[in-house]
Structures are given as structure tokens and as C-alpha cells.
Amino acid sequence: MKNHHVVNHQTPSVDGKGIMMGRDAYSDDFAHSDALIIKIMRSPHAFAKIVSIDTRRAEEIPGVELILTHKDFKRNAYTRAGQGYPEPSPHDKFVLDEYVRHVGDEVCAVAAVDVKTAEKALHAINVEYEVLTPVLDFETAKDNDQRVHPEADIYEMFPIGFDPKRNLAAAYHMEIGDVEQTLRDSDVVVKESFYTTPQAHAMMEPHTVNARIDYNDRLLIYSSTQTPFHVRRILSQALEVPLRKIRVIKPRVGGGFGGKQALHGEMLCAAVTLRTGKPSKVIFTRQEVFESTYSRHPMRIDLRIGAMKDGRITAIDCYGLSNTGAYGEHALTVFMVTGSKVLPLYNKVEAVRFHGDVVYTNHTPAGAFRGYGAIQGNFALESIIDMLAEKLDIDPIELRMKNMIKEGETSKIFEVMGEGTEGTAMDMESCKLDYCLNRGLALSKWNKTYPRQMISDDKVRSVGMAIAMQGSGIPFIDMGAATIKLNDDGFYNLTVGATEIGQGSDTILVQIAAEALMTEVSNVAVYSSDTDLTPFDTGAYASSTTYVSGNAVLKAATKLREMMIEEAARVLQCDSDAITFDGITFTDDKTDSISLKDLSNKLYYNDEQKQLTATDSYVGHKSPPPFMAGFIDVEVDLCTGEFDILNYTSVVDCGTTINPMLARGQIEGGVVQGIGMATYEETHHNKKGRLITNSFLNYKIPTTKEILKLTTEFAESYEESGPYGAKSVGEIGIDTPPAALANAIYNATGVRITKLPITPEKILQGIKEKENKR
Amino acid sequence: MNVTFTLNGRLRNVNIEPGDYLVDTLRQLGLRSVRRGCDSSSCGVCTILVDNKPVPSCTTLTARMDNKTVTTVEGIPKEASLLADEFGKQGADQCGFCNPGIALSAYALKLNHPNADETMIRHFMVGHLCRCTGYVSQTTALKAYLEGKR
Lengths: 774, 150
Hints:
The complex is a heterodimer. Chain A contains 19 helices and 27 strands. A 7-stranded mixed sheet of chain A has the order 3-5-1-12-9-10-11, sandwiched between helices. Chain A has a 5-stranded mixed sheet with strand order 7-15-14-13-8. In chain A, strands 16-17-25-26-27 form a 5-stranded mixed sheet. The model of chain A has no long low-confidence stretch (mean pLDDT 97). Chain B has a 5-stranded mixed sheet with strand order 2-1-5-3-4, with helices on one face. In chain B, a hairpin with a 2-residue loop joins β3 (47-50) and β4. Chain B is built from 5 helices and 5 strands. Chains A and B meet through α1 and α17 of A and α2, α3, α4 and α5 of B.
């Protein structure tokens, strides 16, 4: 580990105080006071064709400015996914369409002077539907007689297995070695199917957008988005407005977790302002956030795993069936991550296959969500590893130690599978997974408790664990850029396209800049994500910010330091090689010196005046994975199936932690979100496809009462290609809880839960079934 | 209709519609720390203090505020700053959308139960959903904030 004066220090976030004190920060805090209020009519049907929309009564209501229906838009298929160009998601969505494909899909929109008028107008609109039979069961969606997307004018940007005639948004197949033959030759084969749920992001700030035409006659949008530059591009494409006429500002975002990677309010808000010339705004209700944005892709994962008696894992066969709901946002890429960021954990196999389908159904669409397929795959794989260990009669820790990926090794999967495309071969130059596992054993109650410890006649304590990997951006696709400007008085502005959404990116990017410029955090003012004022960045997704945007900041800061040294050499009349700079003073080899403050004041006011600004960018040539071992301590009541989570231990290798405290926040927040998915966050639909769990009253996320203790540590690790040795850390925390909990419940009760969420009801049912068999 | 209440130490007379909710009235009055996270008093984001007790403003009618004392985080800058320092030390402030509401509940806790232990803090704060932090860092910060006054 190298010595740093700013990086790897527990710097408080640069913006926390202002936000706590209630200062203007989020999108709606910047809305125009006279903004028209947009309300969207939502489909009550899971699948229907709009026969007619009668807006005459609504138009006559005083204060109604504009009503938009599908007839007001040219048919121009796009994807809301919020990805780079060309998108690996099908262009299968229209701003408004004659079909509605899920309960909560957009029917039409009203813009009015206030909320009451807009709501009154919605009630006055009469819509006639031809109700169609919805496709609600994702396991019978493929080749179903009913087509979710019967229209002809939708398309894929490049081959992704898109076949709407068969209800396929995407499909994928890859095989390395001969899986069937290797499984036949294995001593032991374990087979199981696993089901995951459509988890809701449940970020605290609902999707919020406002728009106006500025005095330069350009469209100005404030949006709670994770991808301001993609928003600009996709708005331009779908609404046919030149890119140069659009400016997107992302103020503070109240949580995203992938849910704000896509465009959800931007299209209609932009359309209203473009057509009326007036400012407008839309804030989604919590019900809209649940029903009308998107969820995690629910999946069925069929796994077969083979091993020899000595514990050598020989082959893994993984078939996945993913439900993308009404639209194919992130359909292929989430699906591929289910393989590409899970299966390389066991890189010594002779053969591995990953294949499957992503189907359309008439449910709320699925999209990007922290973990992005890896949590689904991890639940399946890390559950079956424990099942295999039992069958082999080998300790599950020993089985993992023997077969898991280690530093200096690689997996053929990295080369074969990317995100929507071929992958990138890479060796694990930093991988402390073995340390994470050993340290987790020591920190948790594993050695004392495994597999179980009876507390009383009906209470039992147990432990479970899982290992995981993620990535650090998408190689050759994700690009981040940064500009650093020297000001008079010797302070700096850092502008980045990288998107602060609460994860602390502004703070850690300032730390990287301050480290390179040898200055204090307080001497660097940061401004992020404004498509006019900051350089480009693909956005806050795919665990890219620390590694990709961080490297861009390091390059820009290094460049500016060289420029400053050159200017100091000119003033001190020496060679720039003779200059040393300690962050405050430039000194030459003859002990002449000039302070940064004096140099900057000279540069702006007195002597060969010029602006010093450095811009640089970075695109990853690989995606070094962060790794983690997660251990859960639980106490189960054998009479009721209820359980308490006593502690969750995380040991993480994310290279150097730029800010250990904020990195801990990423891990702990991810772990608790993963615990939510594993336990409390159950979704229910009625028979007609309506989401019943559409509010915080019946969709329960973890609260401060359930999360009692979290133990989080980081491995000493250094990734050569990362900024100051860092890898990214945004997603890895979420991956392990479902499998770790499933394994702990099995260790406690002998009940193997293969369908999330893991509820007391399922545990108790399993206990009863076991008793009946006896 | 007209309603008169004390808002952050200042007597205000506001003209409202009978069905107006407090969250909207306060935002219209420029107190933009008050934000809506849901509309069923189930997330805690819009929490404000009425007579020093935490109340969800998304389901509270402004009409009921006659002669009451309403406090938003703009009215307790010193306390919010103290809590922000503790949150900063723990890395407990991520997206921050829930933080002004938490600051008000924390202040109410300090006023009403200054010696609250960790269990009581957890019970008192249970209405404040946070999707970012996992709560443990927040609870530690809240403990330090309460201890600061003792």
C-alpha cells in the first residue's frame, strides 16, 4: 500500500452538510415557479389497444394547456434504457403508443396550470380500449400465441437475439468446452432451478423532471437522472430536436440504483415545453415509481454443476429465462451479466455453458438495477455450490477455496462475454478473494457456529456465506472525462461528466484530483453532470465511476500539474525538470521559489496572462472486478420460521479505497438492499396483472429495526490500472445476501429455499414437509 | 381559507385551499427542504415538526395548522449542522433525500428523549426509510449527536 495524503482517507462528503441543512439541491428545487404540471394517464389494463381517446371535455377545462396522445407523435421507436450508442436494447418503445402493455403504461398526458386542474382533466378524458389477453406467465411467454409487440416498426440496433414474433427481447448462447460430455464424465452432478423476484429500486426521490426554454431559445432540462448525456442524445433522437438545442442538468439525485439510468419523465416533459413554449414539470407519484418505471429482471435459472470426488468442479451449465416485462430495456446486457460476472468465480472448470432467453410479458418492464444480473446469478450459483459441497461431503469453504479464481489467473469467459458484445480478455492482477474469505471466517461466527448451534428447543443459530465479483465499467465502451481549471488565488475547479447520485462520486473524484495536485479537498470545487458545462461521461452505472471517471480525473490533474510546473519554470527562469512542487510552492534547484497563489495571480493578472485548464478522458481497456465474501449470522425460530439477522460480515477487495468511509457506505447500502431482496421485498400481482405491492405500505424495504449489525472490512489490494490502485465498489455489496441467507437457512433447518424471497412462511412450510416425510 | 401558524419562529398567515397538504404549502412558501417521497406517510422524507413532534407533511392538512408551531430544517440550522457533522464523520450521508426529515426527528428525539439509547433511537427513527446507507452508520451518527448535548 502506498502513502497518500488525501486518497485512502476518510474525508466527509463535500455536499452532505448543505443537503442536511435543506438547501436547494434536487431537480424539483430548480423547477420554474410557474411550471405547467404534467399528469400522465396510466393504463388500467395489462394489455390493450386504444380504440379512441376523447379529450374534448378535458380541453374545455380552464387551465388545461395541452393534452398529448399517441396521435401527437410521429412513430419513432426508441429505447428508454439510457445506454451508450448504439444501444444493446431493442428500440421497442414509442413516446406514446396505441398499445398499452402493462398496468401503469402511459396512455396520454395532460399539462395544466396546477395539479388539481391536471387531475380533473385526466378524469374528463374518455378512453375506449380493446382489452387483449395479457401474457403474464414468463415461463410460457416464449412462442405464446399472444404477441406483446405485434407492431412492425420496432428493431434491434445490432444482433441481440431480438425476435418479437416469439416474444423474445433478446437471446444468448455461449459454450466453452463440451459441457454435456464433461458432466457425463463427472463423479457428481447437482441440478436445481432458482427463481428471483422483480425487486423495486425504491430510491427515496421519485423520478423528477422539469423543462423550460431558456433565453438562448434552447431546451433546458433538470432531471433526476444517472445519465444526463444519454438523456440528451435519446431526447434528440426520439423527439427529432437537434442535440445542440438541448441542455440537460443533473442536480443532486435522491438515489438511483439503476432506476434512473433510463428516461422516464423526460420525454413528455420535453414535449410539453417544446409545444407550449412554457416551463413544465413532472414528479412521479410513488405508485408510478413502482408500476410505471422499472424493476429488477426476475429470472428462472436452471443450473447443473459437475465435480469429481476430490472436489474439483468440472463443468457448469446455466440456462436462464429472464422476464423483461413490456419493454426490452437492458434485456440482453442484464442477462449476460448473470453469466459473465458470476461464472468466472469458478474459473478452473473444463467446460461452461451460459444460454437462455429474455422474454416479453405484460408486466412492468425490468431494467438496470445495482447488481445488474449478477445478484440473480449469484443466488443460484452460490446456493448450488453449498448443495454440491454437501453431496461431495466437503466443507463449503474448502470447496470454494479449491475452485475459485485467484490473483494472476483468468477465465475464458472474460474474452467471450461482454455486455451485449464480445468480451475482453484479462488476467486478475488484483484478486484478494482468498483473503476476503479467510478474514470473513475470522470476523463472523462461522467457526463457532457452523453449521448450526441450538440456543433452545426451538431457536437455532446458523451461518451462511457466499462469494461474489462485479466489474469496474464496461471496457472500450464506458468513457469518462474531466476538466480541471486553475483559478487565481490558487484554487481549482473540477468539472466532470460523472454523475453524483448520492454514492459520493463528487467527493472521491475531488480526492483523486487533490491527491494528484497535492492540495486539500477544500481547495477543489467540483461541478458535475451538465451537458453544456462539463465534459462527457457515460454516467453512473456499471460500477464505472471510481475506475473510469477516476482515471480521467487523475489524467487531467496530472496534465494540469505539468502545465503549472512549466509556467513556474518560465517565471523562475529555469528548466521545468528542475522544479519541485509540493502543492503550495514551486521551487527550483537554486532554492528560488514561487507560491502557487502568486503564480496563479501572475497568470491571471500580471505576466503573460493565460488560462490554465487541462482536460482528459479515459476509456477502460479492461474491467478489473471487485471481489467480496459475505457471511451472515442468523437466528431462526423453528416453530414459526421467523428469523433475525444478527450480523452481516463483508470483506471486500476493491483495490485501494479512495475513501474507506464512503466505500463502506456503498458496501453496507448494497448489502442491506440485497438483504431486502432476499427477505422482505415480496411482489404480488393480481390475476389481471396489476401490481398489488405498489406502495411502501405493502412493499417492505428494510428499516432501522431489522438491520442490527454490519461488519465491513476491506482487503489490502492494489489494482495497477486503477486510479491510485482503486477498483469500483458501487454494486459488489448487493450480490451475496440472497445466497448467503439461503445457505444459512439451510444450515439452520435443512430447508433449501430456491425461490426468493426467503420468508418465514416458506421456511416453516419446508420444516413441516421434512417432518411429514419422517 | 386563511390559516395562521408559526413557521420557523415567524408568524405566517397563509391563504390555502381546504384540501391543501402541508408539504405543498411549505414548498410554495419556499421551504424546499420539505420534499415528497410518497403520499401515504410511509417513507418519512416529508417529516416536519408540529409543536416539536415529527409529523409527515404529505398527509397533514395545512388547514389543521391553525395556531400551531411548524418547524422545518431551515428553522434549526445549528442542529442540522451539528447532525451533518456527525453524519459526515460516519459517511452516513449518501443521497441525502431523507436527511432533512431525519434531522427534524433527531432534533425532536433530543428535545423529548435526550438520553435515548441505541434501541430507542432505532424505534424512534423506524419511520425514516433510507435506501442508501443500511442504517448502521446513521444510528452511530445519531448516537453521537445525542451524546454531544449531554
